[in-house]
Amino acid sequence: MATIQRHDWEADLARRTQTLGGGEITAILALAGATDVITFSGGFPDPSTFATEALSEIATRLITTDAAVALQYSATEGIVSVRDYVSGRLAALEGHAPGTGELMITSGGIDCMELLAKSYLDPDDEVAVEAPTYLGAIMAFRGYEAKVRGVPMDTDGMRVDVLADQLAGGLRPKILYTIPDFQNPTGLSMSLERRQELVELARRYGFLILEDVAYRELGFTQAPPPSLWALAPDVVLQAGTFSKIFCPGFRLGWAAGPAEIISRLIVAKQNSDQCSGALGQRMLEEYGRSGAMERQIVASRALYARRAALTLQALERHMPAGTTWTTPHGGFYIWLTAPQGVDTVALSAAARARKVAYVPGRPFYPADDGHAQIRLAYCRAADDLIDEGIRRIGEVLRIGLEDA
């Protein structure tokens, strides 16, 4: 009997998989349940914000009395009553409600990015992003073989003046992706003036703004400027998620934008996961309509503001001279820049040896940048471990200085 040779499955991989990155998100998620590491890596909401008692009651009631809806497939665009709830919530928060056909329920914010890329990007199309930006978005766009171009940031967010120069020089993105509020990974926000300038550029050059509002409701003090979608619903697709303010286990979000775009995303979704889970949708609706979510968001803001302050105090105590970092006014993140010559990617093993975790800056850039940066997520670290965790990271950076 002839021996069957082992097939080389790697040789059969699609070309686009070569640009998907090295599993950075998988590595971050692997630490979700870690108990022996002080982790500043993943942007996980603190489990204390999950309303387990209320959700248990809602789940029991829905399974008992509403099984025909809650346990069934749903419409691809989302259950009608859930879309009505989300539409009303957007109207209350943004002062603008989606029109007919302008809203769908997604499986988290990343689902919106994937559906848009799947529907609109051909190989070698250009996508503009903040540099740095959310690494999942870079992976989504590169997964459809787009060319991802970075636009630098400063303390007021994306450098829209640099973008204007790039556009004048020939850049022609189909999509511009931005996180204007408490950005991932920097924690910075875009000023109102720049939002208005960005909208003008989108209309002039004919690109779609994909606005990620994952952290918009988690400001520590005052509310952020109007969303880009509220300013210009004709050229903006808003990708929202309930992962940070409800809980990520339900994988629920929304897409709000021009009806002709939403219709294409619905077609794309029916060919991927068909629909967002109906039980999760109905639990979100019941929890939200009860007013419990808005009360929990207030408590969450206070929790994350306290942890941000503790992290900033620890950075002042333990970082070597020459280290700089951003000061967050909301969201989950601080963006740290190590002294010159320090490579935060190379130091990851030293951090693991000290039972502390961070995410190096490299995967947040579309180009070969970020070697001196670290994203610190203070959202999940326990109050009494923050100082010790930052002290260990300071030790790691000093090792890098000695080797530089």
Walk me through the topology:
Layout lengths: L23 H6 L8 E2 L12 H14 L1 H4 L9 H15 L8 E4 L2 H12 L5 E6 L3 H8 L4 E8 L2 E2 L1 H9 L4 E6 L13 H14 L2 E5 L15 H4 L4 E6 L11 E4 L2 H12 L7 H12 L2 H27 L5 E2 L7 E5 L10 H6 L2 E2 L1 E2 L12 E5 L5 H21 L1
Parallel strand pairs: 1-12, 3-4, 3-6, 6-7, 7-8
Antiparallel strand pairs: 2-9, 4-5, 8-9, 10-11, 11-14, 13-14
Helix pairs in contact: 2-11, 4-11, 5-6, 5-10, 12-14
Describe the structure.
This protein is of the alpha/beta class. The chain has 2 domains: 16-45 and 294-403, Aspartate Aminotransferase, domain 1; 52-291, Aspartate Aminotransferase, domain 2 (3-Layer(aba) Sandwich), CATH 3.40.640. The relative contact order is 0.16. The chain contains 14 helices and 14 strands. It is 41% helix and 15% strand. The protein has helices at 24-29, 52-65, 67-70, 80-94, 109-120, 135-142, 160-168, 192-205, 228-231, 259-270, 278-289, 292-318, 348-353, 383-403; strands at 38-39, 103-106, 126-131, 147-154, 157-158, 173-178, 208-212, 236-241, 253-256, 324-325, 333-337, 356-357, 359-360, 373-377. It has an 8-stranded mixed beta sheet, with helices on both faces. A 4-stranded antiparallel beta sheet has the order 10-11-14-13, with no helix packed on it. It starts with 23 loop residues before the first helix and ends with a helix.
